[in-house]
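Quarterly update from the structural biology core.
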Amino acid sequence: MNHGKVSTEIAKGLIELKKRIDAAKIPASKVDETLNIATWNIREFGKKKRTEAAVHYIAEILGQFDLIGIVELRDDLSDLNRVLQILGPYWKTVYSDMIPDPGGNRERIAYIYDKRTVTFTGLAAEANPPRKKKGSEYLNVINWWRSPYIASFRAGNFDFVVITAHIRWGENEKERLGELKMLADWVEMKSKEKFNEDKDILVMGDFNIPNIESDLFSAVVSKGLMIPEALSKKSFGTNLEKDKRYDQILHLPIYKNKFTNNGGVVDFYAGNIKPLFKDLDKSKFTYQMSDHLPLWIQINTDIEGELLNQIIKG
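Predicted structure, tokenized:
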């Protein structure tokens, strides 16, 4: 991390932010043993230039993890590049194209990763919705407003594919059901592909699900996706008030012991804006930081024992 020579105010803000990050109890990752993964909806990231303080704060939070799926990245990548400069030369990114219509909201999805612990292995693509033949054309049955974005990575001998999505908000909750069901179907189909190579599949992002007891959550887990045990607690949310579980990290289980017992949110808000920004109200604060908290999980990447057991069992 290279914050450089910052102002006194930013330095004080970073000290306070580090205390709030420490409260999340994120364990250090270990090369070839564990990996810290997060998903974060950074509100309209790139639509309007962030302040210098906000860029340093966002970089400090991102730097706690090895791989982060970013939702609501906009077409202008200037602020993303400012953040990457602070993170340093080992940090890389791969991102989707933006969609210019109102449904797409000029949004991208990005993966930011530390190449010292995570290797990008080549797959980066949008998830195409299923199509049916009508006359001589193959047409989408329904559309995602913003296509989920897929990328493949490796940490040690652990190969995995990450799918990050930003599900539409819509006029009401029912309008989200179609996209969530389609996401569940798509992941199931992907897992059964002949040349899938048994890669683990992680699915994360902003699903606009109010809680894990809702019909929306039931829809997205209807085809086998599961929530890691460390995130199954009902006592926290990913909005600033921590009462809505809009964001999720899910998986299709292949290895039993893939997840550690560590996971949760980073509460950079903590109900008090002043130590970070002296002159912002809550609404303006969300456009500098976000109205979502980062959701994170720690993964066991040392799966050699399980691989050998699979060979023995045939």
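The chain has one domain: 8-313.
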